[in-house]
DNA sequence: GCAAAGATCGGCT
DNA sequence: GCCGATCTTTGCA
């Protein structure tokens, strides 16, 4: 995926990432999964976004060039992976919320101590654990990186849209996108199917 | 300095 | 459905 893909209106990128394969290379091992759920965080008017109050040490990456990883640590336990969007200077990022595992499933299971494959990466904190993604990858350029990047995946026929989950403010933005035909999304919110 | 909240998960009731 | 774990970031004194 080129830089231009990310340099657009964030909800558009979030929708466009559905069906794309996220690849993590660890030594000679390849771990990957198809993105089936995303959320957009954008601009200065979105109260749920880390960029809401302007540039801080943490949110700096969101204001930088598009196509970079923004990884933050939350609740004392979990890392969350985002990909930055919009032209430089405009804050935006897409939170990757769920993957459908494809390569390296055994390793991901081990990383997760999971017994069911549906449980490997069906949540933002789960997938970073499965793919060994932490803040060491914050700021990684996924357009040129060889340890974290995107590849062509499959076409998503039916995309669902809803409010974002887990946020208190900014509910009015319908910026959560998911593959309505996937059984690997983070929650069973497969009602309210629409076309974005 | 310090206190409080947080883009979560898993276990228990 | 509710609760606890655990620690970073941020806002305010």
What does it look like?
This protein is an alpha+beta fold. It has one domain: Roll (3-methyladenine DNA Glycosylase, Chain A), CATH 3.10.300. Helix content is 15%, strand content 29%. It contains 5 helices and 8 strands, in the order ααββαβββααβββ. Strands 1, 2, 3, 4, 5, 6, 7 and 8 form an 8-stranded antiparallel sheet that branches. The structure holds a DNA duplex (13 and 13 nucleotides).
Explain briefly what this protein structure is.
With 196 residues, the chain is an alpha+beta fold. It is built from five helices and eight strands; from the N terminus they run ααββαβββααβββ.
Secondary-structure blueprint:
Elements: H1 3-6, H2 10-16, E1 21-26, E2 29-42, H3 60-63, E3 69-74, E4 78-84, E5 92-103, H4 105-112, H5 124-130, E6 148-151, E7 159-162, E8 176-179
The chain binds a DNA duplex (13 and 13 nucleotides) through strand 3, strand 4 and helix 5.
């Amino acid at each position: 995926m080129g830089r231009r893909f990310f340099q657009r209106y964030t909800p558009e990128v979030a929708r466009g990432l559905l069906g794309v394969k996220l690849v993590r290379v660890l030594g000679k091992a390849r771990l990957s999964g198809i993105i089936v759920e995303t959320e957009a965080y954008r601009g200065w008017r979105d109260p749920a976004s880390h960029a809401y109050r302007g540039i801080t040490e943490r949110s700096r990456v969101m204001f930088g060039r598009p196509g970079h990883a923004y990884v933050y640590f939350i609740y004392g336990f979990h890392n969350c992976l985002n990909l930055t969007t919009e032209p430089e200077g405009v804050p935006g990022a897409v939170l990757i919320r769920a993957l459908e595992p494809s390569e390296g499933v055994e390793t991901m299971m081990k990383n997760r101590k999971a017994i069911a494959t549906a449980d490997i990466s069906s949540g933002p904190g789960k997938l970073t654990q499965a793919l060994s993604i932490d803040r060491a990858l914050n700021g990684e350029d996924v357009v040129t990186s060889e340890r974290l990047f995107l590849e062509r995946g499959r076409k998503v026929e039916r995309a669902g849209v809803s409010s974002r989950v887990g946020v208190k403010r900014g509910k009015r933005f319908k910026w959560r996108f998911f593959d309505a035909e996937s059984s690997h999304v983070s929650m069973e919110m497969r009602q309210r199917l629409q076309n974005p």
